[in-house]
Amino acid sequence: MRVLFVSPTPTHPQNAGNRARVYRLAAAVRQMGHDVHFAFIRREHGDERAMRDWWGDRFHAIDYTEPTARNGPQRLAGQLLGRWLPGLEHNLPIDAWFDTSNLTALRQIQEAHRFEVVIVEYVFMSLAFSAFGGDVLKIVDTHDVFTDRYKIFLQSGRKPDWFSASRDEEAAGLRRADAVIAIQDQEREFFERISGVRTATIGHLVDTQGLYHDPEVRGDCPLAPTMLFVGSGNPVNVDSVRHFIDNTLPLIKRRVPDIEFLLAGRICNAFRPQPGIRHLGELDDLAAAYRAATLVVAPMRFGTGLNIKVIEALGHGMPLVTTSNGVKGISMQAAPFLVADTGPDFAAEVEKLVADSRLRSTLSANAQQFAVAWNRDFLQALQQLVQPLASRPT
After folding, report:
1. How many CB atoms lie within 10 A of CB 33?
2. pTM to 2 decimals?
C-alpha cells in the first residue's frame, strides 16, 4: 500500500525522543513492505540531506510559516478568560500551529501519488487530513496528551512549555482521524473516552542492539564507573538534570567518589562542563555513548507521555536507574530497571549497581528480553491497524 507520513518533526537526526519515534514508526511501516513517503513540514530544523539519502524520491519538503498572527484573536480571548480562570490562557486552539498554506502542497502530493493511508504526527497537525479524500485511511500518531498539559508544568513550578489545548479542542482534532495511535495504554483510554475514535497503543519501537558489555569483562583497561543521561534540551529534561546535579549527584559522589556523569545529546547545551561531569555532545551514533557507560540514569521529575529515553536504554541492554515518572506507561511486572524517587534512594541504587557486576549483567539481559517483547507486541498492533486496508478496493 502507499502510505504517507506528514510530520513537523524530522526523521534525521534522531537526537530527540520524538524524532526517534517518528523514524522508527515510519521504518517499521516500510519494513512491512508498504511504499512509504515522508512529507516533512519544516517547523523544526532537520538534516534534509540525510533525510533525502534515506527516503530517496519519497521525501517531500514543505515550507512552513508560523501562523501566530492568524491566531491573535484566539490568544487574546484566552488571555482575557485567564483573568477569571487562571491558567486557561495557556491553552491554544487545536489548529493554532497549523499553516493552512501547507494544504495546497499536501493536495499536490496526494494527486501525484494517490496514497491509501495517511499518518499525521501530532493532533495539532490534524487539519492536514482535510487535504485527503474519504477513501484514504487517516491515522494520527499522538505522542502525548495535550489536554490541559500546561497544568503539569505549573504544578512543578515551571513555565508551561510547548503545546496545550482544552479537552474539547483535542477531541475535535482526534475526530478528524479514522484511527488514533497512543504511545501508552493510559493515554489510549483517555483518547477513546474523549473522542470515541478507535485507538491502538503502539509504544516507541526500539533498536534492540544489545550493545551493553560490562567494563569489567569486556577486555578494556579498568574504567572508572560512569553513569549516562541521554536527552534533548527540552525543559523537562533540563529541569530533571539540574535537580539531579544539584541534589542527587553529591549524594552519589559520597558513596562512589570516582563516578563520572556523562551527558549526551542536546541536553549538553543547557549545562557548563564541570569536574565530574563530561559532555559527549550530540552524537550521530548514540551507541558510542552507551558503550562508554556503566549504567544509565533517567531522574525524571515530571512530564507526560512515554519516556523514550528509557525505552532506548533498555533496547541497548543498559542497566538503568530511574524514577516513577521515568517509567510511566511501562509495565512494572518485568521491571528490568531500578526505581527510586528520592535523592538518597537514587544514590543507593546507583551504588548498588556500581558495586554488583552480577546485578548489572542480570538487568542488562532482562532489559534486552523486555525490549524484544515490547517491539513484538507493538509491531503486531501496528500491522493490525493498517492491514485491513489490504482487502479494500483500490
Report:
1. 8
2. 0.80
